[in-house]
Design a protein that fits this description.
The protein has 247 residues and is of the alpha+beta class. It contains nine helices and five strands; from the N terminus they run αααββααβαββααα.
Amino acid sequence: MVTESAGVAVKRRHGEFDPAELPLAQEMANVVEAMTVASDLVSTAHIVAEAACSLIPGTQQASVSLARRGVGIDTIASHGQIPRQADAAQVDTGQGPCIEAAWQHRLARLPDTQTDRRWPQFSARARAMGVGSMLSLQLSLPQETEEDRIGAINCYSESAHSFGRDCETIGLFLAVHASAGIGAAEREEQLRHALNSRDVIGQAKGLIMAQQGLSADAAFALMVRQARDTNTRMHDLAVGVVSRHAS
């Protein structure tokens, strides 16, 4: 059963409801439901990229990129072949709508790669890939601090001037829903990774205790020294210990 979105419900109560908005609300509800049952972060991001292509007018291909301070932009899902290449070009040149949307503004639009002077290096490379215009929408949690910025939805078209105000409105609507879904999926993945790391570190510690006759504290201290001396993460060192034992 498709539920009525909060925005539609409010408009209906105030007599401002436009029946033409109902199909979009239903589509957004479907996207939210799909994200809820997605198996992991990448699957969730793929749902968002596909939704961008089907819901935002003018969008022929799309991607979802995550923003990482000190790391940059990492494209984790792409609907079509061009977005990954174009996203990588933005990372290489350090400019483009994806980077601006991810770090600075709620949206960034590149109307025409042929005439753009805002991001000249990126626009030249994007034009060579067949990109005519682009729209990027920020993914962020409600606080909208730097730490709450997740990344961006990137919409691509081979034609110039494909993205108008209606595209921006629908895109921002999608970005709000996608931010919640991707944020939740990312937190769940981080928790799963932390639990897995704890498990494998515990296994490695137990093996060292058995092999070298050490106490739990002494075995853990040994692992810490080895990780520090070899500049290796504890998780990776533990995986090595467990793998060697298994072989």
